[in-house]
């Protein structure tokens, strides 16, 4: 018998992978093209056939093995010939280079699939599954290839594997929960790089984040700024490894494929051709703040100067008579508006839970955050840490409502106050002996001392910073 051993449609043999080993793929492409009548198909139809059929034939082999460059070039050559010449024997000039036609449509291309990028994306998926997967196969693969440094899989190009490893490490990030699965030195959990990349000499291994956080005298604490541990709090949730290019944090091959291309947004392309925006006529509406029927309500808001830029959050808790019980104004550093909104909601819920105030309604002017809480799906991995905590604290709240920004001015002013002064403040208003609806007796001195001690923030005893929301006319398209 000549040629490689074919097992489940994949050629297997020792040594370098040859183009002749994939003769069955070439024969299948030729037989597919021979059945198409190009005279009866428009160029738009040919693009659909190339993307859905020709570019899909090598995917199975690309997942299970490594496609040589000769095979990839042959597939793209047949695709280009079918698009320009057709299959009727007549040759036509290829007016545009094939690599330019493979660019996204917003960049002037036709969006034809690039098999090189597909193979890289599938290799990234394989490496990500081996490093972070929880399946039985992932556990076996980690033990099987543990002796290879770096992680290289026999039979697959070393260049492709090294490129895939770089992409996995640069785009994976851990969101700490318990901290027992996060490698303190080698995993990306703080900043834009791992601690191992900043340490001179061989870094230590096997140190978990949980061990460092629980031990205040752990020697590894000297490798990061002390402020990191002040902002970090471990929970009882499981550690989660997220994929940064995906908004949900879940790994997708499509998001990995998009990493290999630099695409413009549709608005940027339109503006480059001289198009401008045209807004609709404004309509005047009348809105107001709605008091809670029972118990208390929480208004929260986040602000970001630059998006991303300096951001902060604020909020206040009020009763049905519009009396402010407490308010907060926290500075968050650099972030976008969604991070500010999520952190403001988390801070407000934590303050209400700590003081013992029962909330019947929460108001926010971020529709993205409100809908994500209602649907139970985190909109972005960037806010997963605070979104998860807020989700757990929302169990006893009857309603979480989206409101117009004009009815949320108190929280908005508090958020901007935090940015301008770069401060963390809590504003409280308690009588000497005030019995809440839950039967708890609180004093201003005792509650202020406890909040400041646990949260590490400045207490402002007066409420001159706030003002009541009234009927406000505003314009909205």
Between the first and last Cα atoms, what is the distance in angstroms? 75 Å
Broad CATH class of the largest domain? Alpha Beta
Mean pLDDT: 78
Oligomer: single chain
Main β-sheet, spatial strand arrangement: 10-9-6-7-8-11-14
Count the beta strands. Answer: 15
* CATH topology name of the largest domain: Nucleotidyltransferase, domain 5
Low-confidence stretches: 430-477
Shape: globular
Radius of gyration: 29 Å
Main pleated sheet = 7 strands, mixed
The portion of residues assigned to helices is 25-40%
- Structure annotation, total helices: 17
CATH architecture of the largest domain: 2-Layer Sandwich
Estimate nothing, just give the exact number of structural domains: 3
The chain-level structural class is alpha+beta
Pfam families: RVT_3
Protein name: RNase H type-1 domain-containing protein
Domain RNase H type-1: 299-418
GO molecular function, one term: nucleic acid binding
Helix and strand layout, with pairings?
Blueprint lengths: L4 E3 L2 E3 L10 H12 L8 H12 L4 H6 L4 H16 L13 H4 L13 H18 L3 H9 L13 H14 E4 L33 H6 L12 H5 L8 E4 L9 H7 L6 H7 L10 E5 L8 E10 L3 E10 L5 E12 L1 H19 L3 E6 L2 H9 L8 H10 L5 E4 L6 H13 L3 E4 L5 E2 L5 E2 L1 H12 L2 E3 L11 E5 L1
Parallel strand pairs: 6-9, 9-10, 11-14
Antiparallel strand pairs: 1-2, 3-4, 5-15, 6-7, 7-8, 8-11, 12-13
Helix pairs in contact: 1-4, 2-4, 6-7, 6-8, 6-11, 13-15
């Amino acid at each position: 018998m000549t040629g490689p051993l074919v097992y489940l449609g994949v050629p297997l043999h020792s040594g370098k992978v040859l183009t002749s080993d994939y003769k069955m793929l070439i024969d299948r492409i030729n037989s597919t093209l021979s059945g198409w009548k190009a005279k009866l198909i428009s160029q738009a139809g040919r693009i659909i056939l190339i993307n859905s059929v020709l570019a899909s034939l090598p995917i199975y082999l690309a997942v299970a093995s490594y496609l040589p460059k000769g095979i990839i070039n042959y597939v793209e050559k047949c695709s280009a010939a079918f698009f320009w010449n057709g299959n009727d024997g007549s040759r036509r000039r290829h007016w545009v280079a094939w690599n330019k036609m493979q660019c996204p449509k917003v960049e002037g291309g036709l969006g034809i699939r690039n098999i090189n990028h597909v193979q890289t994306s599938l290799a990234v998926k394989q490496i990500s599954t081996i490093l972070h997967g929880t399946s039985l196969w992932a556990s076996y693969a980690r033990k099987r290839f543990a002796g290879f440094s770096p992680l290289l899989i026999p039979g697959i190009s070393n260049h492709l594997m090294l490129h895939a490893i770089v992409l996995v490490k640069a785009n994976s990030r851990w969101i700490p929960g318990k901290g027992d699965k996060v490698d303190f030195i080698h995993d990306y959990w703080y900043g834009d790089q791992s601690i191992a990349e900043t340490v001179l000499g061989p870094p230590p291994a096997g140190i978990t984040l949980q061990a460092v956080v629980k031990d205040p005298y752990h020697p590894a604490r000297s490798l990061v700024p002390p402020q990191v541990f002040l902002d970090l709090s471990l929970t009882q949730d499981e550690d989660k490894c997220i994929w940064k290019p995906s908004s949900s944090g879940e790994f997708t091959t499509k998001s990995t494929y998009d990493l290999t291309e630099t695409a413009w947004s549709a608005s940027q392309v339109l503006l480059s051709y001289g198009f401008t925006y045209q807004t609709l006529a404004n309509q005047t509406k009348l809105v107001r703040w709605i008091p809670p029927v029972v118990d208390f309500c929480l208004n929260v808001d986040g602000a970001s100067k630059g998006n991303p830029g300096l951001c902060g959050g604020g909020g206040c808790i009020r009763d049905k008579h519009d009396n402010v019980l407490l308010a907060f104004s926290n500075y968050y550093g650099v972030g976008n508006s969604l991070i500010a909104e999520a952190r403001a909601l988390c801070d407000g819920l934590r303050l209400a839970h700590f003081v013992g105030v029962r909330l019947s309604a929460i108001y926010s002017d971020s529709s993205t955050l409100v809908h994500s809480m209602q649907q139970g799906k985190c909109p972005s991995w960037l806010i997963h840490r605070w979104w998860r905590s807020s989700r757990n604290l929302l169990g006893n709240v009857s309603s979480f409502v989206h409101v117009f920004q004009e009815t949320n001015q108190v929280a908005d002013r508090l958020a901007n106050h935090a940015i301008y002064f770069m401060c963390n403040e809590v504003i409280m208003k308690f009588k000497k002996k005030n019995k809440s609806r839950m039967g708890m007796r609180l004093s201003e001195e005792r509650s202020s001392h406890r909040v400041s001690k646990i949260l590490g923030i400045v207490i402002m005893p007066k409420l001159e910073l706030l003002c009541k929301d009234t009927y406000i006319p505003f314009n909205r398209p």
